[in-house]
Design goal:
With 302 residues, this protein is α/β, with parallel strands linked by helices. The protein contains 14 helices and nine strands.
Length: 302
């Protein structure tokens, strides 16, 4: 599905993965005057990027052959391994010498290390650069990038990353960007649940939503999540960081913790809650702050 054939002209910047985040990141590169060659499994997403000025590739192989720097923003570890490692159509097999790969996918740190090692063995430079900042940050080019890789890789990637984000941090060697990202989202999930437990309790006791929101946002409960949610019950749940994606990231954090022998008492509870929420296919696509509605649904239960 992600692999195909065809041909594109001159060497340019490649972008593979044009979902909610990737499409906006690619658009910012185009706005900055960069020539992009794009591919996605969804042709509608490709057409939208072409309408902005990108050039269409017929598959991953075409992107590899046409570009000297390639950004990927894929759903998960499985797609990263497919796109990079396929023995015939993959990026590593078909890339130009010393290609720069910037993988912005959030994935298992061990997979990031493995793919980076294979990239180095092929004579390329690769960094893992997962993002924080959500769809709004992708739109406004204010994302934070947590970068894992060599100092040379970080220096080479920074020029492109600064066109898509504001805060570019070198976290260490390969895989460390992923470690930073899953730890960040672990904390984010816990604080989002804690915030909405407080909101649920306050609202159930009859407090005015605006009043409790104002208190939380000007007192010690203030956090990124409280600003993101705003007044409880007014959030647009149909746009944002999906429940299913948070569940995925918490699964990665849980796996990393198990491998390191680290206990996550609150993290395990958060992971269980988001896993439960994603079982409903409608809820799975809601913004992860939908946890407020989930908690309301638990009221009265023991």
């Amino acid at each position: 599905r992600w692999l195909s054939t065809g041909g594109v002209s001159e060497k340019k910047i490649g972008f593979i993965g044009l979902g909610q985040m990737g499409s906006r990141m690619a658009a910012n590169l185009i706005k900055a005057g960069r020539s992009l060659v794009v591919f996605d499994a969804n042709p509608v997403s490709v057409d939208a990027a072409v309408a902005l000025g990108a050039e269409k590739a017929d598959g991953v192989k075409d992107v590899a052959e046409a570009c000297d720097a390639i950004v990927t923003m894929l759903p998960a570890s499985k797609q990263v391994e497919e796109v990079y490692l396929d023995s015939k159509m993959g990026l590593l097999e078909n890339a130009n010498p010393n290609t720069l790969f910037i993988d912005c996918t959030t994935l298992d740190p061990s997979v990031a290390v493995s793919v980076s090692s294979m990239s180095t063995a092929k004579g390329h430079t690769m960094v893992d650069a997962p993002v924080s900042g959500g769809v709004g940050g992708a739109e406004a080019a204010t994302l934070s990038f947590m970068v894992g890789g060599s100092s040379d890789g970080f220096d080479r990637s920074k020029e492109l990353l600064t066109l898509m984000g504001r805060n570019i941090v070198h976290c260490g060697d390969a895989g460390k960007g992923q470690v930073a990202k899953i730890c960040n989202n672990l904390v984010l999930a816990i604080t989002m649940i804690g915030l909405n437990e407080g909101y649920n309790l306050a609202l159930t006791h009859g407090m005015d939503p605006d009043t409790i929101s104002n208190i939380f946002n000007t007192s010690s409960a203030q956090c990124w999540s409280s600003g993101y949610v705003g007044v409880p019950g007014t959030k647009d749940y149909d746009n944002g960081f999906q429940v299913a994606l948070m569940a995925k990231d918490l699964g990665l954090a849980t796996k990393a913790a198990e491998e390191a022998g680290v206990r996550l008492p609150l993290g395990a509870s958060a992971a269980a809650m988001y896993d439960e929420m994603k079982k409903d296919p409608v809820v799975a696509l809601k913004d992860f702050s939908y946890v407020l509605e989930h908690l309301k649904g638990m009221n009265g239960s023991k």
